[in-house]
Amino acid sequence: MTALAAFDLDDLRLTHNVSAYGWRAPLIVRLLRRVEQDGECWRWAGSTDRNGYGAICASREHKMLLVHRVAYALFVGPIPSGLELDHLCRVRNCFNPAHLEVVTRLENVRRSGPATKTACKQGHPYTPENIAKRGPGNTYRDCKACHAESGQRQRDARKRAQREATAAA
Question: Which of 18, 29, 44, 148 is the most exposed place for a label (fewest CB within 10 A)?
């Protein structure tokens, strides 16, 4: 676990305190102050990490913690060791405890992995006819249409370069 994701409940500031930077509001107040309600999601309006998860400085060591993990610990209870939280709403900066479920790493990856996508980045549908599997255990999917288009672009570029070379000579 990263330092950003791991924390001890003792690190959470649940009462008013004075830090090196002056007076600081209780953590629960700081969380709820930065909520933007979007339907049923509680979107974090504060800073985020590079993956789009809400982050807050809440520990005595001033390390950043993931907002959804802090909210779950405050409103529901501790996250069991070896388990992680899954965003049922698929919104990374949502910290509504009703949208968080404790699952194993394997289950979290299974739910959010490429198998849940129905089309490639270019919008071609992932159908049995349009998928080429590769990698160990055929775990990666490639779009055959994108692969064919890429090959055509490369062939066209090669022909263009050959024509320009013969025209210049």
Answer: 18
pLDDT values of the chain reduced to their tens digit, one per residue, 169 residues: 333 334 444 444 444 444 544 556 778 888 888 999 888 999 999 999 988 899 998 766 678 889 999 999 999 999 999 999 999 988 899 999 999 999 998 888 888 766 667 788 788 888 888 888 776 766 677 889 988 999 999 999 999 999 999 988 7
Whole-model pTM: value is 0.58
The two tokens of residue 56 are 């807050």
- Amino acid identity of residue 37, one-letter, is Q
CATH architecture of 1-112: Alpha-Beta Complex (3.90)
Transcribe 51-113 into DSSP letters.
TS-BEEE-STT--EEEHHHHHHHHHT-PPPTT-EEEETT--TTB--GGGEEEE-HHHHHHHHS
- For the chain, domain boundaries: 1-112, 117-169
Q: CA triplet 58, 42, 16: central angle to 5 degrees?
A: 30
